[in-house]
Each structure stands twice: as structure tokens, then as C-alpha cells.
Design a protein that fits this description.
This protein has 134 residues and is of the alpha+beta class. The protein has a single domain (29-133), classed as Jelly Rolls (Sandwich). The protein is built from 1 helix and 10 strands; from the N terminus they run αββββββββββ. β1 and β2 (46-54) form a beta hairpin. The termini are far apart. 19% of the residues are buried.
Length: 134
């Protein structure tokens, strides 16, 4: 009888935390650099970088990229916008382009319940992350 009471007491204490974890919005995973290669010739001084992104819901925060960005949505839908213009919803299989230096003002999963999956191809100054504050 005591074991049952102990179990029920523990279960009652853990249930609210388990329910909160189920309903919490998925957090964005940090960007992961997949590949980086140094460019030569007329693009000497630059690297080309392939980045794996898993943005969660939300709009992100304003920033700029020091080179062009080409993104491909592998899974989910992404909210994307530059220079505080109206956002676009980019579906799975869709692409977006960000010219050098514009303010990247909107970026995140379009779903409130799931992160998206994006591959981004960037040209950045050699050795840099390619991202700077707006």
C-alpha cells in the first residue's frame, strides 16, 4: 500500500512538468556548419559555407549577412523576410535568396509546433561566420 502511495505521489508531481514539455514550442537548434571551402581567383579572400539550420517558431532577430545567402527548405515551412518588408512563407522544396547586406528581419518556422529544416549556402569573408548585428 505504501509503495502505491509513493508512486502516485511521484506521478502527480511529475505530470505537470511532462505536460508542459509536450506543449512547449520547439526551440531552434544552433546552426551547424556542414562544409567550408576557400575560394580562389576573383573570389580570393572569401569562403563558401554550407550551413544546416533548424529554426523554431518566431521571427528571429535582426541581423545582416556579409555575403549572399541562398536557402533551401528541406522540411517544414519557413517565414522569411528582409528589410522589414512583408514576410514570405517558403514551403518544403522552396528556396529564398538574401542579397549581401540587407537586414534579415524575419526568419523562423511557420509552424508553431515544429522546427523547420533549412540548408543555407553562403559566401562570406574568409574565416568569418558571415553574420553581423543589424
Amino acid at each position: 500500500m505504501q509503495d502505491r502511495r509513493t508512486f502516485l505521489s511521484l506521478a502527480a508531481g511529475l505530470l505537470p512538468a511532462a505536460l508542459r514539455a509536450q506543449t512547449a514550442s520547439p526551440a531552434a537548434a544552433p546552426p551547424r556548419e556542414i562544409a567550408r571551402h576557400t575560394l580562389t581567383g576573383p573570389l580570393d579572400g572569401f569562403d563558401v559555407v554550407l550551413v544546416d539550420l533548424n529554426p523554431g517558431p518566431g521571427t528571429g532577430r535582426d541581423h545582416r549577412h556579409t555575403g549572399p545567402v541562398l536557402g533551401y527548405v528541406v522540411n517544414g515551412q519557413v517565414r522569411f523576410g528582409v528589410d522589414h518588408k512583408p514576410e514570405q512563407i517558403v514551403p518544403t522544396g522552396g528556396t529564398f535568396f538574401e542579397p549581401t547586406g540587407v537586414v534579415h528581419s524575419t526568419f523562423g518556422s511557420a509552424s508553431p509546433n515544429a522546427a523547420a529544416h533549412v540548408l543555407a549556402f553562403m559566401v562570406v569573408p574568409k574565416g568569418s561566420s558571415g553574420t553581423v548585428p543589424a
